[in-house]
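Anyone? Bumping this.
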Amino acid sequence: MKEEQIKKLLNFTIKENNVIKALKLPQEIFLPLLFSIRYGGDWSLKKNSKKLMSVKEKLTKYDENKKVGYTLELIYLFVNPTLISEIGKIYRMEKCSNNNERKLVERPYKVTIDGEYIIKATLDPKSMKIFLKHLKGPLSFTGSGAYGVSHEIEHLNHDKIKGIPFYDFEYVLEE
Ligand SMILES: [Zn+2]
């Protein structure tokens, strides 16, 4: 990393710390959210007897006339998430950062969850701003958001993700 980049990263980190201080909560609860912003994806971890998770949804806005758009990232941070309801069953392949093999898992199509504390971060690539907002639960997610919630809650409650590995599939040559 070049000196200029290091300075910018430090500056970003200082501003990040200031925003967190303004929210008046222990710094460590924001870790999954900061990981989602810096490295992408969903994250979960247990810290000082708190269960923490961040789940990311993506929303692409596209102007058909100008043929240009952007993908908003909506990242939800939950402190001690509690599952209120799950609807439906979707069979799908998932890969976890802990494990290289893709697995067949079952996920709900819709989930409703609450948390002791919820923050929504909206990362806007157009304005290059990250908006933070405290939300009151419960919140519902469908599709990929629901799969993300279910995956991270499975990590928080059971550590490992259970599923059927890709090598149990069979190739079929079609005529
Ligand atoms: Zn995982």
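Late reply, but here is one note on the structure posted above: The radius of gyration is 18 Å.
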